[in-house]
Amino acid sequence: MTVNSELPVIDREVSLSSLVEFSDNLTALVSTLRSKILAPQPRKSAPTFTSTQVAEICEIDRARLHYLATKEGSSLPTGQVSPNGRTRQFTLAEARQWIQQVSKIKRSPLLETGVGQAKVIVSSNFKGGSCKTTTTMCLAQGLSLLGRKVLVVDLDPQASLTELCGLYAEKEIVQEDTVLPAILVPEDYSLVDVIQDTYWDGIDVIPAHPSLFEAEFHLPAKSSKNPGFKFWTLLRNGLEPVRKMYDYIILDSAPSLSYLTLNGLMAADAMVMPLVPESLDFISSASFWSLFADMGKTFTALDGEKKFDFVSVLLTKVDYNTSSSAPVVRSWVNRAYGDWLSSIEVPASSAMSSGALRISTVFDISKWDGSMKTLERVREPLDEYCRWLDNFYSEKWEVAQ
After folding, report:
1. Are residues 144 and 61 in the same domain?
2. CA 119, CA 87: separation in Å to the nearest integer?
3. Predicted pLDDT of residue 400
4. Are residues 89 and 117 in the same domain?
5. Is 174 part of a structural domain of the chain?
6. Which of 187, 217, 284, 306 has the most crowded CB, counting CB atoms within 10 A?
């Protein structure tokens, strides 16, 4: 008996037409999953705050809060009083009013004069999975809870930040809603006109769309036709009128050194690099700086010296288990980045994983089904990092008395 030992040959050829069919099927699947992820309500809603939480943020006790809320002639929100009259529940907008009027946080130029001097911060990293986009949103939320007005700008065609802001990029956003027209045809479009509000009081967004990829074709084409074309200045110039409207503008870039990412880096006053303390992530960060340095030589020669107020490396998803490689990689990061490495670290946590599943962050959660300690373990360092960032700039403010 002869046994055929040859295994069947698997045809691995893939045609473009079959990719189109695959894409259609995948889009349908994602659409189905999205409805489950966002169930039961597709629109995101902001968290609410108890009187205890508002009092803690404002650094007053509950008795003082109750007195100020019920004081005759007070302009402060009273919140929703519980049936027993002992507690109050505040919306996010109400909580921010308390923070702006009662807390000891320094009032910003925007709050004092109505004209901002926004600082532009870019969140950048080559490596996917570094929590770059989630960190961007958390920075915006944390700064808004310090009473600041924040604009987030999504420069990533994947539009993950846009979805964290509660917008469905592929169905609710078109190319004209993004930074693209204002970058490609700045004489006809303004970034001021594409700003949208979000579910989170104090945070606006310029959303992204997959069509942002077009910048990677248009900008090099313009550069080849005009050697003096400074493509890296387009976003910086476009943001100038927007700076007057906010305390902070936070840019979320794609995980690559794209033309839009370069625009974000050159428009920014400061850079935050979320970095997971794992070997591949560390090596990837080194590649980022090597490529950016090469481009930077050209920018400096044509545009003068670029200076960042600071570069901050923020360790994220830090695993503190004894078997983790984090301590070793942390030592590498410390050796490489020195003072750039923040002493604040964001631990790995199931709270972050659960948040990602619901397209949300730890700041979005009013009530947590698990242990509150688990939630606070992640939120506290993010709060601390936002305070550090805000203190860095608020100390420089010259607010008219």
Report:
1. no
2. 37
3. 38
4. no
5. yes
6. 284
What pLDDT is stored for residue 40 in this prediction?
47
In 8-116, at which residue ranges do the beta strands (DSSP E only) sit? 49-50, 80-81, 88-90
Quick one: DSSP state of residue 69? H
* Residue where one domain finishes, among candidates 102, 129, 146: 102
Q: What is the CATH number of the domain that holds 371?
A: 3.40.50.300
Region class of 96: left (phi > 0), else alpha (psi between -120 and 50), else beta: alpha
Query: How is residue 173 written in tokens?
Result: 């956003």
If the chain, 401 residues long, is cut into consecutive pieces of 10 residues, what is the mean pLDDT of each piece? Answer: 58 58 66 56 80 94 92 91 83 96 92 91 85 94 97 95 88 90 90 96 96 91 87 94 97 91 93 91 85 82 84 92 87 89 89 62 76 80 96 78 36
Measured CA distances, 6 to 1, 9, 12, 13, 286 (Å):
15, 9, 17, 20, 47
Task: Answer yes or no: do 311 and 206 share one domain.
Answer: yes
Same domain for 89 and 238: no
Query: 256 and 273 share a domain?
Result: yes
56/188 same-domain check: no
Domain holding 346, by residue range, is 107-394
Task: Give CA separation, 13 vs 6, 24, 27, 362, in Å.
Answer: 20, 19, 22, 44
Here the tokens at position 95 are 């909580």
Domain count of the fold of the chain: 2
Supply the pLDDT for residue 228. Answer: 83
Evaluate whether residue 389 is within a structural domain: yes
Whether residue 289 is contained in a domain is answered as yes
Rounded Cα–Cα distance for residues 234 and 241 (Å) = 13
User: What pLDDT is attached to residue 41?
Assistant: 47
* Backbone conformation region of residue 380, classed left if phi is above 0, alpha if psi is from -120 to 50, else beta: alpha
Q: Please indicate, yes or no, whether residues 130 and 66 belong to a single structural domain of this protein.
A: no
The burial of 16, by beta-carbon neighbours within 10 Å (0-12 exposed, 13-18 middle, 19 or more buried), is given as: exposed
Tens digit of each residue's pLDDT (9 = 90 or more) over 223-238 = 889 888 888 999 999 9
User: Is 197 in the same domain as 227?
Assistant: yes
> Beta-carbon neighbour count of residue 9 at 10 Å?
6
Residue reference for tokens 């929590």: 131
For the record, the structure tokens of 314 come out as: 């923020």
Half-sphere exposure of 340 (CA within 13 A, CB side): 17
Q: SS3 for 316?
A: strand
What is the residue-averaged pLDDT of the chain?
Answer: 86
CA pair distance 214, 181, nearest whole angstrom: 10
